[in-house]
């Protein structure tokens, strides 16, 4: 399928997004909303109508029964928090027309390891793409992902309730500096690699 935005280099934009976030965010593995919000804003500056999506997601990373990473209440770790508590299960990504974009899927291996540390069940990670830029129609229902036994299946399920709940619990102001840096990195990467340094990869403001 021909892209309606041929001027956008998908691989280069994904690399730029990840380089900036890995330098600036010390919340690796739980920073999907920040990834999506900053990337959405950068894409909009490139005159691409990117839409922020928030809801639930699931990824089958291996063929075994337990080889599924879930950000979905269908999983064992469901949302049981009371109304006065801040944490809840969700995932955030971007949609452009009929395509969905997720620049955090490279984190799936680390998420699988974190799940194993909690419940002691090892996950085989045979599928951990650097990013996803795929048709919305390629997303499965969550039960298909859980029972599919085929690595590479995924579910993205927008949910207006969880979207509004997140907005009530968290106040996210877009950091224009990060957007500027992302677009600068995207431009520089057209000529070669670029090293990005920030609080996260310099060990500044780490939570201890």
Architecture overview:
The chain is α+β, with helices and mostly antiparallel strands and 208 residues long. 34% of the residues lie in helices and 16% in strands. The chain has six helices and six strands. The longest helix has 15 residues, at 10-24. The model is unreliable at 76-86 and 204-208 (pLDDT under 50).
**What is the string of helix and strand elements?**
HHEEEEHEHEHH
- CATH architecture label name: Roll
What is the percentage of strand-forming residues? 15-25%
- Unreliable spans: 76-86, 204-208
Q: How many domains would you count in the coordinates?
A: 1
**Total strands:** 6
Structural class: alpha+beta
Q: Report the top-level CATH class.
A: Alpha Beta
Q: Which of globular, elongated, flat, extended, rod-shaped describes the shape?
A: globular
- Specify the helix fraction band: 25-40%
CATH-level-4 superfamily name: Hypothetical protein Atu2299
Distance between the termini: 47 Å
Main β sheet profile: 6 strands, antiparallel
* Count of helical stretches: 6
């Amino acid at each position: 399928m021909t892209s309606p935005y041929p001027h956008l280099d998908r691989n280069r934009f994904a690399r730029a997004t990840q380089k900036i976030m890995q330098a600036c965010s010390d919340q690796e593995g739980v920073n999907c909303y920040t990834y999506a919000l900053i990337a959405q804003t950068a894409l909009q500056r490139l005159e691409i109508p990117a839409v922020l999506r928030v809801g639930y997601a699931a990824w089958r990373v291996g063929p075994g029964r337990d080889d599924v990473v879930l950000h979905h209440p269908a999983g064992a770790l469901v949302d049981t928090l009371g109304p006065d508590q801040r944490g809840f299960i969700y995932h955030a990504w971007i949609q452009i027309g009929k395509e969905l974009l997720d620049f955090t899927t490279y984190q799936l291996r680390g998420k699988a390891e974190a799940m194993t540390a909690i419940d002691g069940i090892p996950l085989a990670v045979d599928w951990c793409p650097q990013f996803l830029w795929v048709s919305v129609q390629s997303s499965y229902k969550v039960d298909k992902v859980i029972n599919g036994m085929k690595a590479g299946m995924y579910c993205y399920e927008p949910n207006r309730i969880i979207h509004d709940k997140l907005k009530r619990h968290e106040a996210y102001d877009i950091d224009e500096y990060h957007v500027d840096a992302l677009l600068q990195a995207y431009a520089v990467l057209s000529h070669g690699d670029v090293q990005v340094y920030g609080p996260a990869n310099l060990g500044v403001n780490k939570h201890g």
